Amino acid sequence: MTTPAWRTSSYSGNDSNCVEVALGEHTVGIRDSKRPDAGDFTISTESFRAFVRSLRHD
C-alpha cells in the first residue's frame, strides 16, 4: 500500500480551517491539517463529489 499524497483542499478557506485531502482511485481521504496525527477518514469519490456539490448550493 502506498502512502497517500495529502494536500490542502482547494475548498479550504483562508481562516486557518484547512482540510487536507488525499485522492485515491475510488476514494478520498480527509483529515484536519492542524492535527494530521489525530486520524482521517475515507469516503468514496462519488460521496465526496456529492458533498462538494451540496456546499456549492448552500
What does this structure look like?
The protein has 1 helix and 4 strands. With 58 residues, it is of the alpha+beta class. It has one domain. The protein has a 4-stranded antiparallel beta sheet with strand order 1-2-3-4. Strand 3 and strand 4 form a beta hairpin. The longest helix is centred in the last third of the chain and has 13 residues. The mean pLDDT is 85. InterPro entries: DUF397.
What's the short version?
InterPro entries: DUF397. The chain has 58 residues and is α+β, with helices and mostly antiparallel strands.
For the biggest sheet, the summary is:
4 strands, antiparallel
Strands, total number: 4
Q: List the helices and strands in order.
A: EEEEH
Estimate nothing, just give the exact number of structural domains.
1
Q: Please state the average pLDDT score.
A: 85
User: Looking at the structure, what is the overall shape?
Assistant: flat
In whole angstroms, the N-to-C terminal distance is: 37 Å
Q: What's the assembly state of these chains?
A: single chain
Which strands sit side by side, in order, in the main sheet?
Answer: 1-2-3-4
Strand content: 25-35%
Give unreliable regions as ranges. none
How many H/I helices?
A: 1
**SS-based class:** alpha+beta
Instruction: Determine the fraction of residues in helical runs and give it as a percent range.
Output: 10-25%
> Nearest-angstrom radius of gyration?
12 Å
